[in-house]
Specification:
This protein has 126 residues and is mainly alpha-helical. Helices cover 52% and strands 3% of the residues. The chain has helices spanning 5-15, 19-22, 26-29, 44-76, 104-116; strands spanning 82-83, 99-100. The two termini are 33 Å apart.
């Protein structure tokens, strides 16, 4: 929160570039305050750290995929469940499994059973 209108306009413009298309005058209100540029190149040290973290994440992603496969297996054979189609199943990181059931009550029941078995399940409804 700020009462500084130019600071607000600048941060708003930098936060949401789409604002330009909605309110073209926003950029005219922005001040030339020293904000970080959009150039986010890494230093050599930052790149080395990122590469090390990327290597470490491979085993983590492999474990997520393994757990995801364990969850999907029984769901595929259940006729009352429809799995969300995946555009690239081999490229999935395994962080979530989405499936559809017949009703909201059924979704709540299934989510409860999964939570009782240690799965962080949250029902969503449209």
């Amino acid at each position: 929160m700020t009462r500084h209108s130019s600071l607000f306009a600048t941060t708003r413009a930098l936060h949401d570039a789409a604002t330009y298309w909605v309110e073209p005058n926003i950029f005219g209100q922005a001040s030339p305050l020293p904000f970080a540029s959009g150039n986010f190149r890494l230093s050599e040290i930052g790149g080395a750290l990122g590469l090390a973290q990327l290597e470490a994440s491979k085993s983590w992603i492999a474990r997520l995929r393994e757990v995801s496969t364990l969850l999907i297996g029984p769901l595929r054979s259940n006729r009352s469940v429809r799995l969300r189609p995946e555009a690239d199943a081999d490229g999935s990181n395994g962080t979530s499994v989405v499936f559809y059931v017949g009703s909201r009550d059924e979704a709540l029941d299934r989510a409860q059973v999964l939570r009782e078995r240690g799965v962080a399940a949250t029902p969503c409804s449209r």
